[in-house]
Amino acid sequence: MPDLTVTTRIGLVAATTAGRRHADTVAAAWPHARLVEGGTVADALRSAWAGCDAVVAFLATGAVVRILAPLLGDKHSDPAVVVVDEAARHAVALLGGHAGGGNDLAEQVGALLDARPVITTATDAVGLPGLDTLGWPVQGAVAAVSRAILDGEPVQLIADADWPLPALPPNVQPRADTHGDANTDGDTAGGGYRLLVTDRVVPLDERTAVLRPPSLVAGVGASRGVPAEEVAELLHRVLAEAGLHPASLRCLASADVKADEAGIRSTADVLGVPLVTWPATRLAAIDVPHPSEVVRAAVGTPSVAEAAALLGADGRAEHATLLVGKTATAMATVAVARHVPRGRLAVVGLGPGAPDLRTPRAVAELRRAAVVVGLDQYLDQVRDVFRPGTRVLSSGLGAEEARARAAVAEAAAGRAVALVGSGDAGVYAMASPALEYADERIDVVGVPGVTAALAAGALLGAPLGHDHAYVSLSDLHTPWEVIERRVTAAAEGDFVTVFYNPRSRARDWQLGKALGILAAHRPLDTPVGVVRNASRPGEQVHLATVATLDPAVVDMYSVVVVGNSDTRLVAGRMVTPRGYRWRS
């Protein structure tokens, strides 16, 4: 969920004492929210509408509707409006649900005021992705195609390439005969609906919606002082003549020496895309069809527009095709390249188990994915989050490498994939094996989670208040000699030591051996905490010392935290002093 409260100007309107109290709560928490005053409440509401990106009205819904009805224009330009009742029981997303961020704002207002968000957008209500929420421009018969998806009517998905779309319901089926073909004209005979994913200009009708993927990069070269109008006119002419749509521009690209060229930069700003620049040495290394010695003499590379278009946003020229060679006017040059899509692999940490310790970003990535891969018991925790149509690849204990390979293979095929692990996916979990196989065909998104040490530490008190080390006692993949050396180093360094995978039925001696190593370097009365099933049903907390801990109370669902020589018990809680000088 985007944080609208940081960058969005939010106008707050209230009439009663209770409403103003709720508005004050919002204004105190959000830096871009302010109470809007006026001669009357209606005047204040109109002022907020005219001067803010979003409005939160602490008024009756009917009153807000009557006041704002004459002001309604277009959902893409009108501000979002959320209405909160007098008792702050509900936060109603009234206007701008998707396009204006009203649904997200209602969620965030609800979280702040402990109010229930009320969202009536049909796709949100049934857990389907709205076509205007995918992060790409969408055009054509968006409402009609969205309704067809909701109603279960057949919808043809016709894509130029394997773009990592989120899960779509079973009634949205790809049409295999056009995959990889830029000709998406097709027909809608028999009353069918179509969802096209293409960067090409295509004919639209009342049953066709078009998603514009970010596939195009326009390389731009220019003389110093080039007018923005000349750059923009050339760019739009080149795109139009090639049958390409500007909404699919990922970025403009040029040479570093053009990074401050106002005509290029303002064109990028108007288009709403970034300007990416490359050093002349990188541009000169790209093989282009129309090199120029004149350009080389001027900027140190035989090509700016073509080479920059091929390098694109991430420097992967080998995965780009030059669609339009350099085309020039008196002061500007433009070339256009198409970049192949990359699959998307989100490595998601689910936290220790409790739903309220699962991050909003983790939930968003699970709902963004078309394929979710993970251990069966972890997937069972989050199946209620998946969108209809999500393909789930589950497996049992001990199949970590197979899960990692499966997730990478799905992403390499161009799909949006989430690979889940418990705690933080980068701590003794799935991120490491997956990223060993992930190559440049894949965009990787890491989603941090609350790892077991943090969940256990919070239950024990503050045992991790100073330097600490994590050590896994599993010797399935790491020889015991290596583990023993690491435990010894932690003991000699007087680190608080957290043991993951501390003991199982097949590995019942390693924990005792590790405790013996620590006991040789710190007092025998050093506190030890064992947390089993942190934040899950059956949660248990056990306190002991290095001398008294019975390894039999520990299993694979446990985390063991051994204090350092300064760790002590305070009111039954483990505390490792930070050593602040002011304490002395």
From TrEMBL:
<feature type="domain" description="Cobalamin biosynthesis central region">
    <location>
        <begin position="134"/>
        <end position="213"/>
    </location>
</feature>
<keyword id="KW-0949">S-adenosyl-L-methionine</keyword>
<comment type="pathway">
    <text>Cofactor biosynthesis; adenosylcobalamin biosynthesis.</text>
</comment>
<dbReference type="InterPro" id="IPR035996">
    <property type="entry name" value="4pyrrol_Methylase_sf"/>
</dbReference>
<feature type="domain" description="Tetrapyrrole methylase">
    <location>
        <begin position="345"/>
        <end position="549"/>
    </location>
</feature>
<dbReference type="Pfam" id="PF00590">
    <property type="entry name" value="TP_methylase"/>
</dbReference>
<dbReference type="GO" id="GO:0016787">
    <property type="term" value="F:hydrolase activity"/>
</dbReference>
<feature type="domain" description="CobE/GbiG C-terminal">
    <location>
        <begin position="216"/>
        <end position="337"/>
    </location>
</feature>
<keyword id="KW-0378">Hydrolase</keyword>
<dbReference type="GO" id="GO:0008168">
    <property type="term" value="F:methyltransferase activity"/>
</dbReference>
<protein>
    <submittedName>
        <fullName>Cobalt-precorrin 5A hydrolase/precorrin-3B C17-methyltransferase</fullName>
    </submittedName>
</protein>
<dbReference type="InterPro" id="IPR014777">
    <property type="entry name" value="4pyrrole_Mease_sub1"/>
</dbReference>
<dbReference type="GO" id="GO:0009236">
    <property type="term" value="P:cobalamin biosynthetic process"/>
</dbReference>
<dbReference type="InterPro" id="IPR006363">
    <property type="entry name" value="Cbl_synth_CobJ/CibH_dom"/>
</dbReference>
<dbReference type="InterPro" id="IPR021745">
    <property type="entry name" value="CbiG_mid"/>
</dbReference>
<dbReference type="InterPro" id="IPR000878">
    <property type="entry name" value="4pyrrol_Mease"/>
</dbReference>
<dbReference type="InterPro" id="IPR036518">
    <property type="entry name" value="CobE/GbiG_C_sf"/>
</dbReference>
<keyword id="KW-0489">Methyltransferase</keyword>
<dbReference type="Pfam" id="PF11761">
    <property type="entry name" value="CbiG_mid"/>
</dbReference>
<dbReference type="InterPro" id="IPR051810">
    <property type="entry name" value="Precorrin_MeTrfase"/>
</dbReference>
<dbReference type="InterPro" id="IPR002750">
    <property type="entry name" value="CobE/GbiG_C"/>
</dbReference>
<dbReference type="InterPro" id="IPR038029">
    <property type="entry name" value="GbiG_N_sf"/>
</dbReference>
<keyword id="KW-0169">Cobalamin biosynthesis</keyword>
<dbReference type="Pfam" id="PF01890">
    <property type="entry name" value="CbiG_C"/>
</dbReference>
<dbReference type="InterPro" id="IPR021744">
    <property type="entry name" value="CbiG_N"/>
</dbReference>
<keyword id="KW-0808">Transferase</keyword>
<dbReference type="InterPro" id="IPR014776">
    <property type="entry name" value="4pyrrole_Mease_sub2"/>
</dbReference>
<feature type="domain" description="Cobalamin synthesis G N-terminal">
    <location>
        <begin position="44"/>
        <end position="124"/>
    </location>
</feature>
<dbReference type="GO" id="GO:0032259">
    <property type="term" value="P:methylation"/>
</dbReference>
<dbReference type="Pfam" id="PF11760">
    <property type="entry name" value="CbiG_N"/>
</dbReference>
